[in-house]
Amino acid sequence: MTTEVxxxxxxxxxxxxxxxxxxxxxxxxxxxxxDDQKSRETSGEAQDSSVPAPTSQSSPNSQKKxxxxxxxxxxSRFLPPWxxxxxxxxxxxxxxxxxxxxxxxxxxxxxSESQALEGVAxxxxxxxxxxxxxxxAKADDKEKHSISAEIQPSKEDGKETEVEEAAxxxxxxxxxxxxxxxxxxxxxxxxxxxxxxxxxxxxKTVQCKVMLLDGTEYSCDLEKRAKGQVLFDKVCEHLNLLExxxxxxxxxxxxxxxxxxxxxxxxxxxxxxxxWIFTFNVKFYPPDPSQLTEDITRYFLCLQLRQDIAxxxxxxxxxxxxxxxxxxxQAELGDHDPEEHRSDYISEFQFAPNQTQEMEEKVxxxxxxxxxxxPAQADSQFLENxxxxxxxxxxxxxxxDSEGVDIMLGVCANGLLIYKDRLRINRFAWxxxxxxxxxxxxxxxxxxxxxxxxxxxxxxxxxxxxxxAKRLWKVCVEHHTFFRLVSPEQPPKAKFLxxxxxxxxxxxxxxxxxxxxxxxxxxxxxxxxxxxxxVSRSLDGAPMGISDQSLLRDFSATGGQAAGDKIIDLEAxxxxxxKESGREEDESPLKTPQLELAQDGKISSLRxxxxxxxxxxxxxMLEDLDKTQDDLLKHQASISELKRNFMExxxxxxxxxxxxxxxxxxxxxxxxxxHETLDIVEEKKQAEFGIEETLVIDETNKxxxxxxxxxxxxxxxxxxxxxxxxxxxxxxxxxxxxxESEDEEVGExxxxxxxxxxxxxxxxxxxxxxxxxxxxxxxxxVEAIPEGSKLNVPVEHTQVPAEDLVQENRVTVATEEKNLSxxxxxxxxxxxxxxxxxxNGDVSHVDIDVAPQLICCSxxxxxxxEMVTISDATQRTExxxxxxxxxxxxxxxITYESSQLDGNAVGDTGVLVSAQTITSESISTTTxxxxxxxxxxxxxxxxxxxxxxxxxxxxxxHDEALAQAIKEAKEQHPDxxxxxxxVHKETELAEEDED
Amino acid sequence: CRQALRSTAGPEVDFARAERExxxxxxxxxxxxxxxxxxxxxxxxxxDCVFVEDVAVVCExxxxxxxxxxxxxxxxxxxxKRVLESLNLNxxxxxxxxxxxxxxxxxxxxxxxxxxxSRRTNQRGAEIxxxxxxxxxxxxxxxxxxxxxxxFCSMAGPNLIAIGSSEAAQKALKTxxxxxxHRYDKLTVPDDAAANCIYLNIPSKGHVLLxxxxxxxxxxxxxxxxxxxxxxxxxxxxxxxxxDGSLTCCSVLIxxxxxx
Lengths: 995, 260
Known about the structure:
The complex is a heterodimer. By secondary structure, chain A is of the alpha+beta class. Chain A is 55% helix and 13% strand. Chain A has a five-stranded mixed sheet, with helices on both faces. Chain A has a five-stranded mixed sheet with strand order 15-18-14-17-16, with helices on both faces. In chain A, strands 6-7-8-9 form a four-stranded antiparallel sheet. In chain A, helix 19 (563-591) runs antiparallel to helix 26. Classes of the chains: A alpha+beta, B alpha/beta. Chain A binds chain B through residues 315-320, 388-391, 412, 414, 420-427, 429, 432, 626, 628, 630, and chain B through 60-62, 90, 111-112, 115, 123, 126-127, 130-131, 133-140, 177-181, 183. Chain B: This is DDAH1 dimethylaminohydrolase. Chain B: Belongs to the DDAH family.
C-alpha cells in the first residue's frame, strides 16, 4: 500500500530534485526507508552492498536506489521531465479524496507541485491544467515512443528508441503504481500533504450529473480530482442504497461506447469530455435477486431490468413481456382498479421494444391476477421471472472470431458466452478460463485443456478497436472477481486481486457484499416507485430528481479535458508497446522453430498473450465448488498428464514448454541440447531439494526480507525487460521477467501481508504493481493447491537460490526461464510427497502459459497486465498479433551446478563471480525471482530461482553482468546456497555474437 | 399415423407390426396416462408423416412450425399447422427458405434449448428457433454421425438427460454441458437408440418415462429400471427404428390445460 511513497521517492531521487514537494514527502519516505534498510540488514542480507553496485547515489532510500539504480540510472537519463511529472502527478491523486482533504492543503500541494515543475522535472500537480498539458505532451511522446518501439522489431538497431521505450515502460509502471498507491495509501498521502501546507487556493469543482434509474437526474459538485468512488458514494447516499456493490456509474465515450467509472481512479482521468454525465446502472446482475437483503435494492434492479427489456437489450418472449409488465403494474400501481385503470392506462408504460395493443391487453389481463401483491412482492416476482431469461445479466460485446465471423461475446456471472447471431455457440465458464488478456484490439482467453488434451488453448477474438478490447477485458476481470472470488475468508487475497493492477476490480465481491448486507440494520427505507412510466411522466413528479440543466451548460462551457484519458492512453500505449515488442519478439522466435509448431498448436496462444492478462486465481477453488465429478476427473487427468510430462519424458514436454514460453532460441538449438540441460536440471533439482530442507527454517523470516529485496529487483527487472523488449523483440525476457516477478510476488505477498510493515512498503509499492500481477499468479498456484486440500495450503518454503543469468543479445531470455521452470517442474515431480502441491503448481503453469509445465508463475499477470492496460491505436497499426517477425537466434545454454546443496553456490558461481561489475548504461538487466514453496514430509522448502536477463547490445560485458547478478543474489540471500546457475545465451544471428 | 414409411436401405419394415407398436404407443399416452392425443391423419403421399415431432416445436404457448430438412417432408407441416391452430397456440412459421430445422434436433431441457446442427437442421433454422423462444438460451450442438440430436439423447427427468454411450453421443453431451449454465444429471445408457425416451410430468402420475423395451435393449432397460421415482413404461419401437424412428419422433407434447 505504501508503495506509492516509495515510487515517488525513487523518482525524486532519480531526478535528484530537491523541490518543495520532496520536503513534504520526504519525511515519511525517509523514515520508511531507513527502516527498510535496517530490516533488511538485520535479516542478515547485505542487500546494500550487493544490489547497489552500479549506482553510487546515497540517500535514505538507498535500497531502492540500489535496486532500481542500475536500471533507473540508465533510464533516468532518458526519462523526459514529464515522466517524472507523472509520478508526481500520481502522488497528488490521493489528495483528491474530497472529504478528507482541506482545500487549503490541496492548494498548498498544487503550489508546491508547480514549483517543483519549474525547478526540476519532478513537479507534482500544480494545476490540473498543467497536468493535463503534461499529459498531452506525454501522450505525444508516448505515441512517438510507441511508434519507435513498434518499428524496432523490424529494425534491430534503434538503441535510443529502446531506451525511450524503457523509459516509457517505467513511466507506465510508475503510473500504475501511483494509481494503486493512491488508492491504498491515501491516508498516508494526506498526512504528508498536511505537513507542509502552504497558502490555500481554491478547490476546483466540477459539476456532475448522474442519470438515475428512475429517470431522474442527480447532480452535485465534485472536486475536480475526485475519484469515482466519491461520486458513486454520493449517488448511493442520495438513493439511500446500501447494497451498492451491484451497481456502478457508466459514462459514454463517443456516444455509443459505455464505460464503467472506476471508483478507485480519478474521474477526470477516465472521462474525456467535460460534461461529467453519468448513468447509474446495475453493473453486476445478481443471479438470485431474492438473496438481496433490501427491497430497495431489488427495486433498483427492477428498474434496470425494465430498461433493459424495454430497450430490447434483454430479449424476451411475448408472454414474458406481458408477465413482467403485469408485475410492473402491480408494483407501481397496486391492485388493478377497474375504475381507475382504464384501457389506456397501460400505454403510459413501456414494457417491450415493440409494444402492441395485444400485449397491453395481455398485461392488463395478467395484472388483474396479481391482486394482493405488495409492491415488494411484485418486484420479487418480476425478478424471479426476469432472472431466468437467458440473457439476464449478460453484457454483450461485438466481436469477430478468428475467421472474421461476426459474433457476440457475453460476459455474465458464470463466465463468457459466445453468440453467433442469437445462438449460443460456445461458453467458457470461469473455471475453464485460465487467463484473460487483450492486446490491441484482440481479446484472448486461455482455456483449460479438455480431458484428453494436454495443452490449454488460447482463443482469440477481434474487437472493433483497442478500447473495445480493453473494455471487454475489464468487464471480464470484474465479473470474474465479483462472482467467482469468494474472499471474505481471505481478505488479503481479495485485496490483492482487486488492487493488484490497474484494471482489477476494486470493489467488494458478491460474497463480500452479501456478507456485508447481512449487517444492514435499518428499517426498510421508504421509496417511491415511479419510474417505469414513460419518460415524460417520470420526469415530472420525481421527488428525487434534481434536474439542473444549468449544469449541462456549465459543463459545456468548460469543455476540454481530455487530458485524463490521454494520460491513460499514453500509459497504456507505453505498456502496450512494451508488451507488444516483447510479444513480437516472442512470436518471431516461435516462427523460426519448427519444433515448436509441431508441439504446440498453441504458439499463437503465446503470442496471443495480451498485454493485459488476467489470471484467475479462483479457478481451482471454483471448480471444487461447482465441479461435477467429471470435471474433477478431467482436472485430475490434466494434472496427471502434466505429471507424466514432468516425470517421464522430459524432452518432449520441455520443448513444448520452451517454445510456448519464450520461444525461439530453443528452436534454433537442437532438441538434444535442450534435453541435456533438462537432465542436468533434474539432477540439480534433487540436490536442491536436500538443500532446501536445510534452508527451510530461516526462510519464512527471510522471505519477507528477501521479498522486499526481490521486489526491488523485480521492479528493476521490469524496467529492464521493457528495455529489452523495446530494444529487441525479447518477449521471452519480458515474459520471463514477469513470470519471475510473479514468483517473487508470491514470496513477497505472503510475507508482506503477514508482516506488513511500513518499512517495506515503499519498496513493495514499487514492486507491487508488478507483484500484484504476480500475486495473482501466485494465488493461482495457491488455488491449484486447494484441489487436493484447500486453497490456502500453507506452503513451506524451500529456498533454493538458483540464479540463472541469461545473456541475451536480444531475443533469448525465455529459454533460460524455461529451463528453470522445467527444473522446477521436475523437482516438483520428484517430490511425490507434495504431489498435490506440485500438481497444482503444474496446473497453474499450464493455465498461465501455453507451456504450463515449465512456468508456473512466469508470464502471466504481471508483465502482461501492465502492458495490456493501456494500448493505443498506434500500437495496433504497427504490430498485429499475427505478425511474426522471424529472428534467427543462436542459443547457448550453460549450466553451472553446485556439487550439492550445502556448498554455497559460490563455488559454481565463483567462476562467474570473478567477473566484474557491469555498469554500462545500455545494459538492461531483468531479474526474475521464482520462489517455490513446497511441503515435503512436513518440511517446508523454499526455493528461489532468479532469472536474470541481461539484454544488451555489443556494449555489454555479459560475463560481468552475470557475475554481478550472481553476487548480488548471494548477498541478498546469505542463508541460501546457490545450487545451480544456468547461463543461456541467445544471440541473433543477424547481429554479431557478442558472447 | 400410418405406415407409409420413407424407404431406407436396411431391413424391411413390417408394416403390420409397426402399426401395432404405434397403436400401443398411442394407447399408453391416451389410455394409461390419460393424455389427450390428437392424431394427425395419415397421408400416404408423405411417407414420414408419422414422425410428427420433426415438424413442430412447441414450448409453452408458442409453437414453431419447422421447415424440415428433407424437402419431401415440407408438406407435413400443413397438417400440423391446422391442429396447432385449433389449440390456440401462438404459431410461428419458419418461412426463411434458407432455414431448415427438424424437431428431432431440438432438445428442450426445461431451461434451455439445444439444437443439433445436422444434415436436417442448419444454423439459420436454429436462429429462427432462438428468435421464437427468446426467453431461452439456444445452443447449437454439432451432430455428425446420427440423423438427429435426439437420436441419442433425450430428457428423462426434469433435470436428467438420457444419453447414449457412443462416442458421438458423449461428445455431444460434453458440448451441451459446456454450453449450459446449468448442471444436468445424466443417465447414460449403453445403447444410443435407447437414450431416446419420453419423459412426462403428469400431475396425477408424477414422473413418467416411456422407454424402449427390455426385449430391444436389455442393458439399457436395466439402467432405466434404476430410476425409482419414475413410472416406467417400456414400449417397443422395433419397426420404426428401422427407418430412424425413435420414441419421441412420433409425438409432439403440448402442455395445455384441457380446454378442448
